[in-house]
Design goal:
Keywords: Decarboxylase, Lyase, Magnesium, Metal-binding, Thiamine pyrophosphate. It comes from Fontibacter flavus. Its cofactor is a metal cation; thiamine diphosphate. InterPro entries: DHS-like_NAD/FAD-binding_dom, PDC/IPDC-like, THDP-binding, Thiamin_PyroP_enz_cen_dom, Thiamin_PyroP_enz_TPP-bd_dom, TPP_enzyme_TPP-bd, TPP_PYR_PDC_IPDC-like. The chain is of the alpha/beta class. 38% of the residues lie in helices and 16% in strands. It has 21 helices and 19 strands. Helix 1 runs parallel beside helix 7 and helix 9 crosses helix 13. It is globular, with a radius of gyration of 25 Å. The protein starts with 5 loop residues before the first helix and ends with a helix. The relative contact order is 0.10. The model has no long low-confidence stretch (mean pLDDT 94).
Length: 582
């Protein structure tokens, strides 16, 4: 008898790809699958309070490990998971969504006997229909003989395109034997190696497709090199694709050659350690600091590398040129340089080609290393805690051992975006799908990185959506710290609706829909942890309170913390001042 069944095959493949934890919620169509995971594999199953949290946790895990996995039951489970998978699809996060579904017999009963089984919407392929827009592969496994090929195909697509896939397995297939895994799966590159393409383009007769790609790459590199060489003040602007495709070393090699200031986009924050002498801050609409702006405004050649064209790039700024605001833009396999457009050009190949041109023809840097910005005046310890005071104190606390996971909203804009992160990829945020509450379970998933302590920063409105993940943190003995920025309202929603309540001296009321029911967070931690010794909580009302809590956090390196940062409802990060007072 074969020693491998469908579930152990999938588990083995996941572990070969670096996945050692499976986030899950039990359900009767998935119970046997989870039992096999627990008893026949070395995967560690992490139980979650709901499917959305499990999906967000897999997302946070994937951002650290390169791949994540989540298992849920069909219908009530798969539909609840959908939002998390949608966000991962938009943000290029590879996740394997495993859906346990009705057996072959039950499916035939529905089709032929008009029987409706619980958790199911009826006969048909509902999961395929709802997951098709947010996955790059969907495999329904109903025959164990085909399972290895289907699993390998889905996983290869997932790691190649760096987007989610779904694998639906009928419950009568879990224990069924199948072939053993053969070899190791590896990603399929988007293009042939450039050396191969050059050979194909130079052949007689030339391969037209290869020649097209080579011509575009060379043209783009030469155009950028020409503009860079003519520039009197080039500035680099880097985005998330530098991280997605692991191009940090190539970017640093380019930076070493041209010695120019570089800024992050919001989606690309901290992909390069921010203690680099050429780092000038965040370039992001109204949140771009005066220090950063002096370089951007002086620049005659802003070069965007891996920056996605999004509305956030121009947030709060009146402009008809939405999103793509650099003179040269390299992203999504395209290069736009002025009026020139080159397609099918990978960022990795472009960096190589540009470095080769500099090596061949030389480049004379025009900048001197920028002076560091003047640090803000630290708050007095007796001051009430504010957004700015919190981030100023936290900035002196965090080290390269900390990983920041930030929620969207006032927690990110002008908040965590102001922190100086010296750890590569040391901050994770879901800044384009922007589903509030993502950070808390994502912080759980991210906490499984070795030698790190995860600090989650989340608004109180967002926290209320997914707060049960704190219970899982305690159960799994994660040393995660969750800071709840408790301003008692949906602050960013009020900002976007009408910032009047935030104007100096304002008594304007908040929109009723944005006012939150207040919670007792210390007691909430007691409830979530059942008063466990590793579940600790604290209230912060003053700057001194924050100093005291941070010291306690350091003295308890193995505990889960829930910290209530008790803010005035009309307080906001000063980075929003231009938006409030426009």
């Amino acid at each position: 008898m074969a020693s491998t069944n469908v579930v152990t095959y999938l588990s083995t493949r996941l572990q070969q790809l670096g996945v050692n934890h499976l986030f899950s919620v039990p359900g009767d169509y998935t119970s046997d699958l989870l039992e096999i995971v627990d008893t026949q594999t070395s995967l560690t199953r992490i139980g979650n309070c709901n499917e959305l949290n499990a999906g967000y946790a897999a997302d946070g895990y994937a951002r650290i490990h390169g791949l994540g996995a989540v298992a849920v039951t069909t219908g009530v489970g798969s539909f609840s998971l959908l939002n998390a998978i949608g966000g991962a699809f938009v943000e290029d996060i590879p996740i394997v969504a495993i859906i346990g579904t009705l057996s072959n017999t039950k499916s035939l009963d529905e089709i032929n006997g008009a029987e409706l089984y619980h958790h199911n919407v009826g006969s048909g392929d509902a999961n395929i229909q709802i997951y098709k827009p947010v996955t790059v592969a969907f495999e329904k496994i109903s025959n164990p003989i085909n399972a290895p090929a289907q699993i390998d195909s889905a996983l290869t697509t997932c790691i190649s395109q760096k987007k989610p896939v779904a694998i639906e397995i009928t419950e009568d297939c879990y224990y069924m034997p199948c072939a053993d895994p053969v070899g190791i799966l590896s990603p399929i590159p988007s293009y042939e190696p450039i050396a191969t393409l050059r050979e194909m383009a130079a052949a007689t007769p030339p391969n037209k497709y290869a020649k097209q790609i080579v011509t575009a790459l060379d043209g783009a590199a030469q155009s950028i090199y020409k503009k860079l060489s003519a520039s009197k003040a080039p500035v680099l602007w880097i985005g998330k694709e530098i991280q997605t495709y692991s191009l940090q070393d190539k970017f640093l090699a380019l930076l070493d050659k041209i010695k120019a200031p570089f800024a992050n986009s919001l989606l690309g924050k901290a992909i390069i350690p921010e203690d680099n002498p050429w780092f000038i801050g965040l370039h992001d609409g109204v949140f771009t600091s005066a220090y950063t702006n002096q370089f951007i405004q002086k620049s005659d050649c802003l070069i965007g590398l891996g920056v996605w064209n999004t509305d956030l790039n121009q947030f709060g700024v009146n402009s008809s040129n939405l999103g793509m605001i650099s003179d040269i833009d390299v992203s999504r396999s395209m290069v736009k340089a002025g009026n020139e457009l080159y397609v099918q050009v990978s960022l990795s190949d472009l960096l190589d080609a540009l470095l080769a041109l500099i090596e061949k023809y030389g480049y004379r840097p025009v900048w001197s290393p920028p002076s560091a910005p003047t640090p803000p005046t630290p708050p007095k310890v007796s001051d009430p805690i504010t957004y700015d005071g919190f981030y100023q104190v936290l900035d002196t606390f965090i080290t390269a051992e900390h990983l920041i996971v930030a929620d969207i909203g006032l927690s990110t804009f002008g908040g965590t975006s102001s922190l100086k992160i010296t750890r590569p990829n040391g901050i994770q945020a879901q800044n384009i799908w922007a589903s509030i509450g993502w950070s808390v379970p994502a912080g759980l998933g991210a906490s499984f990185g070795e030698g790190t302590r995860t600090l989650v920063i989340v608004g109180d409105g967002a926290f209320k959506l997914t707060c049960q993940a704190v219970s899982t943190m305690v159960m799994e003995k994660r040393n995660t710290v969750v800071f709840v920025m408790n301003n008692k309202v949906y602050g960013v929603e009020q900002m976007l609706l009408d910032p009047a309540p935030y104007k100096p001296g304002s008594t304007a009321p908040f929109e009723d829909a944005n006012v939150l029911q207040q919670w007792d967070y210390v007691s909430l931690m007691n409830a979530f942890s059942n008063n466990a010794s590793n579940g600790l909580a604290a209230n912060v009302n003053t700057v001194q309170d924050l100093h005291n809590v941070l010291e306690t956090i350091n003295l308890n390196p193995d505990a889960t913390f829930l910290v209530n940062i008790n803010l005035n409802e009309r307080d906001y990060p000063s980075a929003w001042s231009q938006f409030v007072n426009k």
